[in-house]
Each structure stands twice: as structure tokens, then as C-alpha cells.
Amino acid sequence: ELTQPYNQVPVVKAAIRAKATNVGQVPFKIAKLGSDKPLESGPMWMLFHDVNPYMTSTQLYEAIVTNMDLGGDCPIVLDPNRVAGDIPAALWPRRWDQVHEAYRNGYFAGWKVDKGTGEPDIVLPEDMLMPKYYNPYDILRGDAPAKVLTLALRAEWGAIKFNQMFFEND
């Protein structure tokens, strides 16, 4: 069954990977509000330069593009530890399927983030960045291009599996 087009269909992985790699190579510039001069140092510049101990800035932008193409959005948890006042110590991108809406009394209250232990963390809306594709059906979550692509790829996936079984079984 076609459940992970990124890992199962080579052309999907190649297309998304090429796009993510190219976006990751674009120089990221950040400036203070009201200024056109890009920051070249300081805590905010460091946050986007050294994203977290396991990820470079290039990998952050690749993660954002890849997650948005596959899931519609790329939830990024702001590290609760702060530096220089209110600047997060790190950014932690998560897969779209590891984050779910949390409601209290029928109102959106934040995000449930799956940390793999069975008990999700609750993250307040102000502690989450949510780059996403516009979704006319959901104001909180993005609309993934891969969802529609998956429908079209089911036939190709069947052909790939048929050819594989054909050659394996002589």
C-alpha cells in the first residue's frame, strides 16, 4: 500500500528533495523591525544560524519545505529556555503528524506534541511557529500538495510493485 510517497516513490522524493535543497541554499536574512539592514550577529541571528544542537540553518529550511510539501505545515516548537530576554534557545521542527490541536472548553488552547512516550507535551500557541500552506478547509493546519499527489500516484505505485514482483518471480 502507498502510505509514504516520499519514501516509496522515487520521483516524489527527488522532486521534494530538489526543491528543499534549493530553498535551503537561499541566504536567510533577518532584520530588526523597521530596519532594512540585516543582522549579522546577536542572539536572534544565532537562533536562525545555529538552530539546535542537531540541525543547521540549511537543514531547518529543508525541513520546513519537506514537511510543508508532505503534510501541509511544519510545526516548530520554540525551546522553553530563553536567551537575551525572550529569544528561544533553540528551534525544534517536528513532523506534521506529531502535532495535533489541543482544545479547552471548545476553544483552541495550543498544540499536543507527540514526544514518543505516549504522553504528549502541551505547547501554547505563542511557543509554536507554524509555517504552512494556506488551507481553505482548516485555519490551523496547512494543505499538503502530497495529499492530492498520493491519489495520482496509486496507479504508479501499483506498477512499481507489479514490476518488482515480476522480476523477483521470474
Structure in words:
By secondary structure, the chain is α+β, with helices and mostly antiparallel strands. The chain contains five helices and eight strands. It has helices at residues 5-8, 10-24, 43-49, 57-71, 145-168, and strands spanning 76-78, 82-83, 87-88, 91-93, 99-104, 107-113, 121-123, 128-129. It has a three-stranded antiparallel sheet, with helices on one face. β5 (99-104) and β6 form a beta hairpin. The model has no long low-confidence stretch (mean pLDDT 89).
Brief summary of the model shown:
38% of the residues lie in helices and 16% in strands. By secondary structure, the protein is α+β, with helices and mostly antiparallel strands. A hairpin with a 2-residue loop joins strand 5 (99-104) and strand 6.
End-to-end C-alpha gap: 22 Å
Oligomer: single chain
- The Cα radius of gyration reads 19 Å
Total count of helical runs of at least 4 residues: 5
Number of strands: 8
Shape verdict:
globular
Unreliable stretches (pLDDT < 50, length at least 5) are none
Percent helix = 25-40%
- Measured by DSSP, the beta-strand proportion falls in 15-25%
Could you describe the largest sheet, including whether it forms a barrel?
Answer: 3 strands, antiparallel
Average of per-residue pLDDT values: 89
Q: Strands across the major sheet, in which order?
A: 4-1-8
Q: Can you write the helix and strand succession as a string? A: HHHHEEEEEEEEH
From the helix content, strand content and strand pairing, which structural class follows? alpha+beta
Please outline the helices and strands.
Blueprint lengths: L4 H4 L1 H15 L18 H7 L7 H15 L4 E3 L3 E2 L3 E2 L2 E3 L5 E6 L2 E7 L7 E3 L4 E2 L15 H24 L2
Antiparallel strand pairs: 1-4, 1-8, 2-3, 5-6, 6-7
Helix pairs in contact: 2-4
